[in-house]
Amino acid sequence: MSIAHTPYPTNLAAAGDGTTPRAVMVASLLNDLEIAEACGSLGIVVHFGHFSGIEPLQGYQNIIQCINDTLKSWDGQAKLLIENQAGNHGKEGMTLEELVKIRELCRDPEKIGFCLDTCHAFAAGIWNPLHTEEFLQHGEALGYWPHLVAVHLNDSMYAFGLRKDRHAQIGKGCIGDAGLRNLLTAQPFSRMAIALETGKGPDGTHRQEIAAVRKWYEAEVQL
């Protein structure tokens, strides 16, 4: 399984005019979907959107309109996967409630899924590894987990709730190996597409991190 990622300048909350109009975002997203479809990817990950001075209600409306304009002509299997945000650029997109509600209000929710970034969830203060079960129950109550398609698996350089989006290698940050393992081996994450967004190891690869993550699942099978 593979996933694609939209260019970082993509902003779902962009207005309908200006230097980066909504039409530019829509064209870019459709191009990304076409590439993902050709590659057999599950979907394209896109950040929730940055309001950058836009009044919050208008920002949410812009996101919904951008997604609607993008998906109205899209008939492929690849989905648009909204990623939760850490809060380093603003409060928008930090909560599961926002992601679920945006999907619900769009015209084609069946074409929309989610990508959970573990560092972002930790930084935003919505997932405390000491209380993972509460996080799992909360996502279940909201109906978030059935639409989770992918995970960005990252440890965090900074402590819980500081809203700092700085990734650390698996097990070498403030979340830690045990916290990440407990979340990723929980039932909602079974058969999930997982991507690392961490720095390379001493040998220039992610070999050590991949091996560490595989051991989590090997241990689960043995249990």
Automatic annotation (TrEMBL):
A Pfam family that the UniProt record links to this protein: AP_endonuc_2
Record keywords, A-Z: DNA damage, DNA repair, Endonuclease, Hydrolase, Metal-binding, Nuclease, Zinc
UniProt keyword DNA-binding present: no
GO MF annotation list: DNA binding; DNA-(apurinic or apyrimidinic site) endonuclease activity; phosphoric diester hydrolase activity; zinc ion binding
Keyword DNA repair: yes
GO biological process: base-excision repair
Domain Xylose isomerase-like TIM barrel intervals: 4-215
Similarity comment: family membership: Belongs to the AP endonuclease 2 family.
Protein's UniProt name: Endonuclease IV
